[in-house]
């Protein structure tokens, strides 16, 4: 059953050096506060997994916390490249980075296979694509019933998955609203999980039509971190900071400016600092 703890306790108890770690959240609910706590606690040799690695993984790579990354599309959304990611791949700074690239469909199916405790995922994909030529983990299987040749990829089974959500109740059940992405599958596929939330409430209802509930038996730790998805957005709580994503391009281009930013805004900061971005609570239903 999920335990409600501080973010420092959640990361300290669940994230270990050498772990395969997934931090999911598609467009919104990206767990920035939790990622910063991983950096503050000095975790190393992490193998990062994410469908769309953006600024958060740029930061983890730039501080040298990552040994590798499995992903589909990596960039600063709407702006351009991830410069710390590029520096690691092109110049091995601050350390070499192993990469394994997939399509969105393959990543989503691999998470689902992991959640179902299956060894691999199959999909109709990669037809005419060049990724199988450079990724030995993209293989093919023949359907024993129809003879159709399908793509196959290994299941994703993280040691720990971290997500952000809108609310949890006091028993540790978690509500996600808006774009749900692969958060559910990533949590169910993992050995351990951390969920940061905007609010802890007595009751989760009324959820919106586009929502899901993760039961407390599927979650290891819940931490109350208002604003914990900033600069991404939390549906119903605060908007995306487009200015930050644009500003990150300049910050991350230079190693020294990146290091100075991390020192001031991550190493010298606390999870509580995210609260100023939380904005107003969502309007209650009539």
Explain what the structure shows.
The protein is an alpha/beta fold. Helices cover 29% and strands 23% of the residues. It has nine helices and 13 strands. The protein has helices at residues 7-14, 32-40, 55-62, 83-91, 104-115, 131-134, 183-189, 242-253, 255-267; strands spanning 3-4, 20-23, 46-50, 66-71, 98-101, 120-123, 139-142, 149-154, 160-169, 174-177, 192-201, 211-214, 221-224. Helix 3 links the parallel strand 3 and strand 4. Helix 3 packs across helix 4 (83-91), helix 5 crosses helix 7 and helix 8 packs across helix 9.
Key traits:
disordered C terminus, 29% helix, 286 residues, 13 strands, alpha/beta, 9 helices, 3-stranded antiparallel beta sheet, globular, 10-stranded mixed beta sheet, 23% strand
Quick synopsis:
This protein has nine helices and 13 strands. With 286 residues, the chain is an alpha/beta fold.
Helix/strand-derived class? alpha/beta
Strand content: 15-25%
Instruction: Please provide the count of β strands.
Output: 13
**Spans of 5+ residues with little confidence (pLDDT < 50)?**
282-286
Could you tell me how far the N terminus lies from the C terminus, measured between alpha carbons in angstroms? 32 Å
Shape: globular
Question: Taking Cα atoms only, what radius of gyration do you get, to the nearest Å?
Answer: 19 Å
User: How helix-rich are the residues, as a percent range?
Assistant: 25-40%
